[in-house]
Amino acid sequence: MTTNDAFFKEITEGNTFKGEYITMGSAILNEQPIKNAYVNIPLKTLNRHGLIAGATGTGKTKTLQVMAENLSEKGIPVLLMDIKGDLSGLAKPGENHVKIDERHEKIGLPFTAKNFPVDLLTLSEQDGVRLRATVSEFGPILLSRILDLTDTQSGIVSVIFKYCDDNKLPLLDLKDFKKILQYATQEGKAEFQEAYGRISTASTGAILRKVVELEQQGADLFFGETSFDVQDLTRIDHEGRGYINILRLTDIQDRPKLFSTFMLSLLAEIYTTFPEQGDSGRPELVIFIDEAHLIFNEASKALLNQIESIVKLIRSKGVGLYFVTQNPTDVPEAVLGQLGLKIQHALRAFTAKDRKAIKLTAQNYPDSEYYDTATVLTNLGTGEALVSALDEKGRPTPLAATMMRAPMSRMDVLTTGELSELISKSKLVKKYNETIDRESAYELLNEKIKLAEAEAEKEAERQKESKKKAPTRRKSTAMNPIVKVLTSATFIRSVFGILTKVMKK
Ligand SMILES: Nc1ncnc2c1ncn2[C@@H]1O[C@H](COP(=O)(O)OP(=O)(O)O)[C@@H](O)[C@H]1O
Ligand SMILES: [Mg+2]
């Protein structure tokens, strides 16, 4: 048997699975693609997460596009974090092109241009389905992690949530949360102190500053109603294809905190609402995070821990997470260690540091008698990558330098006209895009304070009356100073007694 034959046999046997799979391309030996030596990924192990890495322009995003298309065809819904805005083309068929025909001829796969069912989502004011969550849904623990609070501050946040629960005050947006924070050390101070112990102004002040910081990254757009039902990410179209949900994040690059807040809340929500996966042998949802370094870069230690544990847990719900990034080291060790699929595009060896990184990367791949992994890593062409998946028993498939198939949908983005047409047809846009500001903690607390004010004013009137009766030399001003302070909604200590009485009713 020639080396080529032996290689072909190893690749073919290693990529034969009992259940369903997707095909990424054909294996390359000595820089020559071997026709029909298909490199496949079984659906069964797609919930084991993965990494797509490589230098800029080597084909990472196209690999993501290819995976998303093939999953959709298998009826598996996909969520894409589109940081650079280069994935909308999935909604339109690609174009036949000499280069693509050549590529597919070498791989041994026919090329068919196709479009896919796409919905565009947004976290901000961009057009698309608005993704939102309420502060209540977020919960005290997650909120504290996101805000990077100390233990004492987290304790206060828990008390605040408890108070809102006890008093049926819905916490919908950050406006509500800020209001109750202020209330706890101002108008409601005595009430809080009695029920939960003293809350220091210094602590609430510190929490408030963190909230404002989050708001400055645009989080006020994300918190609120209508909150997004993550089940809507798992829609299947009338042809049985999974929807490809593209979250447009081009305006989020400079707001990493908002991005990690969103990612964590989304994963937590999916984890709590998706049922434990049975033995379906296929994922329920596959999530791709392009430019993944953005969620890890500015994340605090507490947040990282949270991400690490949720990444581990979410597997059992049949959700696969794929991180797309230039350098594997952009992803924390603890997450890297959990990844089943590795797709490594070319790395460039410009500096000594680059060469060291290449050596390290090569060590993370299974040994192969056909490749010197470090050399292959620098020689891969555009749209070629080293692939190592997990077979259905969870063992690594043979390492394969792979010529990737081309995306069936458009490699370029949609025009503005095409985008608005797509968005105008979306059922989800109709469901989620109305801004509602129903009565929540903010309004209810204001009402409570107003009531207390009115009561205090009456009390002051009564006092004034009784003073009038008694002869006095003191010249009264137009408005009693107490009333003045009260109506400006800032309360002096002596009024608290009245206030607490009113509140208790
Ligand atoms: N699988 C592929 N089939 C055809 N062309 C590809 C493929 N992968 C990459 N290319 C070409 O390389 C270019 C850069 O790929 P891209 O995925 O945007 O790189 P990256 O995300 O790594 O920066 C694409 O615009 C396309 O022309
Ligand atoms: Mg890219």
TrEMBL record:
Entry keyword set: ATP-binding, Helicase, Hydrolase, Nucleotide-binding
Organism: Formosa algae
Region entry Disordered, spans: 456-476
One family name in Pfam for this protein: HerA_C
Gene3D superfamilies xref list: P-loop containing nucleotide triphosphate hydrolases
Name under which the protein is recorded: DNA helicase HerA-like ATPase
CDD domains reported in the protein's UniProt record: SIMIBI
Top-rank taxon, per record: Bacteria
Residue ranges of every copy of the Helicase HerA-like C-terminal domain listed in the record: 33-475
Keyword ATP-binding assigned: yes
InterPro entries: HerA_C, P-loop_NTPase, T4SS_component
Higher taxonomy: Bacteria, Pseudomonadati, Bacteroidota, Flavobacteriia, Flavobacteriales
Gene Ontology MF term list: helicase activity
Compositional bias annotation for Basic residues: 465-476
